[in-house]
Amino acid sequence: MVNKLQEQIIPPVSRLRCVTSQIISCMPPNFLLLDLGMAISFATIAVPSLLNASEGLSLDETQASWFGSLSYLTQPIGALLSGPIVDYCGRKRANFLVNIPHLVAWILMYFAWNLPSLFIANALLGLGTGVMEAPINSYVGEISEPSVRGALCTVTQLFTSIGIFAMYFLGTVVDWRGAALISLVVPISSMAFVFLVPETPVWLLFKGREKEALRSLCYLRGWTTPDNVREEFDQLVEYSKKLQNCAICESLHGQEMKEVCEHYRMNAAKRSLYKCWYVMLGKETLRPLTLVMMYFLFFVMSGLTPVRPNMVNICGALGMSQDGKDVVLIVGVITFLTSLVVIALIKAVGKRKLAISAMLGTAISCVGLSVYARGNLDDSVYSYDTETFPKETSAVPLVLFYLMAMFTGLGVPWVLLGEVFPFRSRASAQGVAAASNYIFSFLGSKTFIDLETNLKLWGAFATYATFGFLGAVYLYFFLPETEGRTLQEIEGFYNTEKWRVFPDDPLVNYFKRFKRKKYAI
């Protein structure tokens, strides 16, 4: 009778209202990613104007190569710093602070008066981009429900695509200085949105702030009352209590730890060092970290990322039937549209099938570009020398290039980054994984000129195709399906012995049916 009376008194929260509150809470990370997309694509619009410019600032071929890849070199530094910042300041406050490097960078880029100031501004863009990673992925992963987490993580990537498209569009209407000045609006907006959203409940519980955690969860589940979120809150409280256990030996938390745990008697610095070492090298962290880093390696080196800084000139070198700047703009549109498609595809087919299919599609597109370049371009064609570009144009490389951009946009490594790591190491592991992505991006961008010099354009794209095929094989054997799983389920899964696939994963069920059919008498 009492339960029925409570159900009548407490109205249920509509699903739309619940999801809307989570979407609004994701706006600060979304604007961070909008800024990130603009930062990583800035070199694409700046290099053509700066390369051998007749007046103002000018870059030669080597300087242009370094300018295009420099931000990737400083991004890992920012990514490694992002984990400690998030753990110390909290997810919400970190989302505010990480905007500062880009504020300084865009101002310095606009006023750049010589090459050192230009390169420092680009290095700051990379540093700011790297330091954004852990706040973005930690916040979105921890505030969202399992049923919508994949979609919300994909929406954040949609804002990256919007940022890329916005920068490519700005490159067609203003010069690179004007684009830098306009970009200042984004970090300022992101900082303003932070004041409208709560801290994540898990982090608040970990810090012992239960009342604030409950208010935060009520906000995130549709501005509801504590009674409507009591069950989920109790589960989070139970989970947070386990997080208080000793990270090294899993002894009990609270007062009992003083008696039973020898690590409690260590000095604080030594205990922190032991804890960091144990947590980061534990199988529940090391296994997903290896997966994400390998995924980033194959994702980055399978086509679009290495050619992005010099994309305009590469389009001309391949003899495309469209102007290079127009191609770059359409690539931005394709990236945006594929981000929209991914939101629906993740719910329909899951992350595993989508990731493998996207990697295969990218590899096949690179094979097509390699075959075309081998059969139709002279050995003298060099993307850093416009005088060597072919006079005849064709739509074939244009279509293949757009296909490569489309399949690259269907990749989901950043979505995995927000959900596969345990709470204790989440921010630090996300920082390390993001740092690896930027290191691979730097190596890919910086070595493109060497690949083209030694192997020509066809050899460069053949190399990227090889990475794509190897990546598809790796993901087939090591990427589990995480769609619809809670963060606690994923954490427990990587802590088991048979961790490559979930027990009820379709891949397991397929092999079981195959074995039964094969050995049936």
Overall description:
The chain is mainly alpha-helical and 521 residues long. Helices cover 75% and strands 0% of the residues. It is built from 26 helices and no strands. The model is unreliable at 1-7, 251-258, 267-271 and 506-521 (pLDDT under 50).
Question: Could you give the topology of this structure?
Answer:
Layout: H1 2-9, H2 15-25, H3 27-40, H4 42-50, H5 61-89, H6 91-97, H7 100-110, H8 115-131, H9 133-143, H10 146-173, H11 176-183, H12 185-194, H13 201-206, H14 210-220, H15 230-243, H16 255-260, H17 268-281, H18 283-300, H19 304-307, H20 311-317, H21 324-376, H22 396-409, H23 413-417, H24 423-478, H25 487-493, H26 506-519
Transmembrane segments: 94-113, 119-140, 152-174, 180-206, 289-307, 327-347, 354-375, 395-417, 429-449, 461-479
Membrane topology: Multi-pass membrane protein
Subcellular location: Membrane
Query: Strand tally, please?
Result: 0
Total helical elements: 26
Cα shape: globular
Order of helices and strands: HHHHHHHHHHHHHHHHHHHHHHHHHH
Cα-atom radius of gyration: 24 Å
Could you tell me the strand content as a percent range? under 5%
Q: Please state the structural category.
A: mainly alpha
For the termini, the CA-CA separation is 57 Å
Uncertain segments: 1-7, 251-258, 267-271, 506-521
Fraction of residues in helix: over 70%
Largest sheet: none
* Overall residue-averaged pLDDT value: 81
Protein name: Major facilitator superfamily (MFS) profile domain-containing protein
InterPro entries: MFS_dom (IPR020846), MFS_sugar_transport-like (IPR005828), MFS_trans_sf (IPR036259), MFS_Trehalose_Transporter (IPR050549), Sugar_transporter_CS (IPR005829)
Membrane topology: Multi-pass membrane protein
Subcellular location: Membrane
